[in-house]
Amino acid sequence: MLGLVAAATPGASAASGHSTFTYDTYTQVMTSWDPSTDYSNEIIAMQEMYETLTRYDSQTKQVTPLLATSWSSSDGGKTWTFQLRHGVTFHTGRPLTAAAAAASINRTIKLNQGAAYIWGAVSSVTAPSTYTLVIHCKYASPIDLISSSDYGAYIFDTQAAPAAGLAKWFAAGHDAGTGPYTVESNTPNAEVALTLKAFTKYWGGWSGNHFTQVAFRVTPEASTAAQLVDQGQVSFVEQLTPQLWKAQVGQSSVQTTSNPSWQNLITFFNTSSGPMANENFRKAVSTAIDYKGIVAALQGGVVRTPGIIPAGLVGYDASAPEYGLSMTKAKSYLKASGYSGKKESLTLTYTQGDADEQLAAQLIQSELAPLGLTVKVEALQWATQWAKAQAKSPSARQDIFLMYWWPDYADPFSWFTNLYLGEATPYFNLSYYNNKTVNAQIGRVEATLAVSKSAGAALYDTIQNEIYQDAPTTTLWTVKYQRVLTAGIKGYQDNPAYPNVVFVYNLKP
User: Fold this and answer.
1) Category of 11 on φ-ψ map: left (φ > 0), alpha (ψ -120 to 50) or beta
2) Which residue of 56, 57, 200, 282 sits 20 to 30 Å from the alpha carbon of 312, by its own alpha carbon?
């Protein structure tokens, strides 16, 4: 029965196996199907269908082989040569070659959407022989690390459909990757929204114990998800409340894990319209939030780290400036803003089904009340929330927007180029922040880091200080991944470089 975990027969092939891994998530699974442009929650499924040249191992802090078996750099880090794995087949039946890999990277660069910025240093991608891929850069860049990105680095068959119709072909629910699993059924509005099946020609093979089906179930209520894993109806729960997670610890039917992450929850202020366009008003709100109280209320499920960059990444600074609760400062900032004594109404949006965001929203609502600020809290499905934040009219956007962020590869550049670089049309910069000095600093930080790690880290410090002074955002917490899995599943590890991804192929039922 779909959702039940049954033991596979040792040595069973994909065709004869019967084991299903059911991933329980609280929100929409697929917001995009295009491997060139996807950039959201669908990572949990895309990483099962698609692979990259390399993969980052957070345990060893090393880049490891995946579709590339080896690589080297020359010309001071401007030229990268990858030797590709032989005998790899796309889900379309065509073989992986260097020309096919180059075509997929070039398509991503050309479309210039999603995480395509990761290839910003690239001047050309060529295939001098069947299994040799060469990437030339305009400046020194860590292409081996970039090639392990969780978005924008997928290698896929660009010939799956005619070029003009490829985007529509993907949007219809097809995939063209090399990963261990491929699409079986796509029912986005159903309880089980997506099912993947084992790709029989997967280069890694199917000998030994493997899950041969992956199902993605959407359960908005955390209490229901807890019941489902208790009953063995799901194999893995992406997120429970800390209280529900603690109740699972020590239960014989499940196993629990708790690990640090690189995923933080950021509060974006609408700097384009309304009172949040006033810097002092933003600082008043920032200093009225009881960060320690919010972290305490989440009972070990999160930690607060200073600045924007989580611990474990270059640029993390334990002494980075951060806002803390001070009603005295909040009232002073409010007075300086000119809004003191006025009754203002603010709209705060968060993702429906996220119990932690809901708690934070409710606490912020109560904490701003003493300043005379009424906060209207709206729980929206992610796609709806994101669309509201991207509204053309600044006044149609929310005042406060809660959103998680994580790096695209094991480097903090993702936060800055996506969340703080000025944009003509909002995408993920949902505070609508635009500071010319910060824009210029972000523009040179990647090249600086490629030459000198210490100089790059120092520049990240400078950028974080500039952003702190302008207060377009404030970071509420960094997530601790508290997972619940069915007892008996072996091989699970959290990898913060691939947030919320379970590499199901590596597990043993």
Assistant:
1) left
2) 282
Measured CA distances, 249 to 243, 260, 299, 435, 483 (Å): 10, 17, 14, 46, 10
The two tokens of residue 420 are 């703080």
Among candidates 32, 56, 45, which has minimal Cα distance to 407? 56
CATH code 3.10.105.10 for 260-481: yes
CA distances from 88 to 66, 93, 128, 371 (A): 11, 10, 18, 61
118 Cβ partners below 8 Å, 6+ apart? 146, 149, 151, 152, 153, 408, 409
How far is residue 473's CA from residue 286's CA, in Å, rounded to a whole number? 8
> Which pLDDT band holds residue 263 (cuts at 50, 70, 90)?
very high
pLDDT in tens, 94-135: 999 999 999 999 999 999 999 999 999 999 999 999 999 999
493 token code pair: 């590890």
Judge whether 360 and 294 are in contact, CB under 8 Å. Answer: yes
What is the rounded distance in angstroms from the CA atom of residue 167 to the CA atom of residue 508?
Answer: 35
Q: Which CATH class is domain 20-34+165-259+482-506?
A: alpha beta
Is residue 239 classed as helix, strand or coil in its secondary structure? coil
